Amino acid sequence: MQGPNDISRSPRLTDLATLVRLPAALSVPGDVLAGAVASTGRVRPRTAATMASSVALYWAGMALNDYADATVDAVERPERPIPSGRVGRRTALATACGLTAAGLGLAALAGGRAALGVAVPLTGLVWAYDLRLKSTAAGPAAMAGARALNVLAGAEPGRRSSALPAALLVGAHTYTVTALSRHEVTGAPRSVPAATLAGTAATALAAGALPSLRRTGRGRPDGRAARIGAAAGALAYLTTYGGAQARAAHHPSAANVRQAVGAGILSLMPLQAALTASGGAPALAGLLAAAHPTARRLARKVSPT
């Protein structure tokens, strides 16, 4: 096995895809979509560029994660691209820097200073987590904050307060995934997946209840459509992610915890569908829900963790 240093040959595209956890990026646009519809009830022209910005920043964080963890991964996760010698460490850092620049550039293109006002602190949290906070008590909160900001990035400037409930729920979900991820290699005490499962159940209940807290009106679907969409998304979220956590709580081995983390990353999509439906776009929520099985199939080829 080669060490976690640069290598002479250029990495293959498949190795770079593994480095940035390519399929997991399907869980990112839904944050922006949920924020957009929560604030305006519809998608604006800038939403696509904001989604692209968020995906670039997500991929940057994944590459930076492997750069920062190269020494640890050489022992704990030797199959990853850097310790296995398929991607050089300097290449991973360059990839992270390039994708970060692209993400911030796309944010500026999407919304100028107002968009950068969210994208810059989001980027700061991602870099701080990967380089400093991951192993500290602040790690899960940092990741939760980054994903909450990703929701607010999609919201219309001046109306971001309308997207706060969705942002808080996405942040709460991310906190549970990050807390679980600390035990992917060694396994966890039963109390950890049990606690995150309780948090997931509370998140699902809150997401399903959101339509009753929103007013219907111009640009919003009728209350019945919102309630059905939110309930369906929340149930799918609880079934997929909650089920994996229940198995981990019953037998908290490293393999079961890792499966729960992978389920949590991709189960964000039905949660986003619930939030999008409650915000005013049941058709778009249906597209998010329909994309979830595709993301799960792709994850069998490229691990999201």
UniProtKB/TrEMBL annotation:
It is a multi-pass membrane protein. InterPro entries: Prenyltransferase_related, UbiA_prenyltransferase, UbiA_sf. Its main location: membrane. GO terms for molecular function: transferase activity, transferring alkyl or aryl (other than methyl) groups. Gene3D superfamilies: UbiA prenyltransferase. It is found in: Membrane. One of its GO terms (cellular component) is membrane. Keywords: Membrane, Transferase, Transmembrane, Transmembrane helix. CDD domains: PT_UbiA_1. The keyword Transmembrane applies. It holds the Pfam family UbiA. PANTHER family: CHLOROPHYLL SYNTHASE (PTHR42723), CHLOROPHYLL SYNTHASE, CHLOROPLASTIC (PTHR42723:SF1). This is Prenyltransferase. It comes from Streptomyces griseoruber.
